[in-house]
Structure prediction request, 186 residues.
Amino acid sequence: MDKVNRVFSKEGVSYFTLMPLSWRPEARPSIDDIAVWMYDDVTLLRALATIESMQPQRDGDMGSGVVTVLERLEFKIDLTLSLVAKLLTQNASQPTTCPAFVSAEGMEWISKEAAKEGDDIVISAYLSPKLPQPLVLPARIKAVQQEPDGTRIYATFTHLSEEAQDWLSRTVFRYHRRAIKLHSHD
Prediction:
């Protein structure tokens, strides 16, 4: 998938990434399943924001001794998270990595599996290697297009809680802003 050429939704804030992603048909998810998915998604998105915001303070903001202690603590937390993630993923296989556009409203990616417009699905998306657990996002396929590599799918999220939608919007905005900053330095 050409990262500058989205076929479907071109509105709103989004970003391009390579991520492990899978999906499955799910005609009628139960209210209980949706509640668990939304709780887990909010927890993951909040944890990701916390992990990614842990930046050492600049000299002058705090004493250099405090900065050193914070840097060591951050390193230990990162190491612990990395080891836990490796342990958790040893027995669980992640889906294939694929190029994807992510927005707060939906996703676009190329799938090896055939898809049908209008189908309800559940997407499992590993937004960050810092999190060994995927976001589980109920969605509806809005458009499909055959490509040489498979089927390009555009799906919009459904059944997101207000809190999950808010945290997803924040995450997408943060990643979008980083992508712009990265490309402006090229």
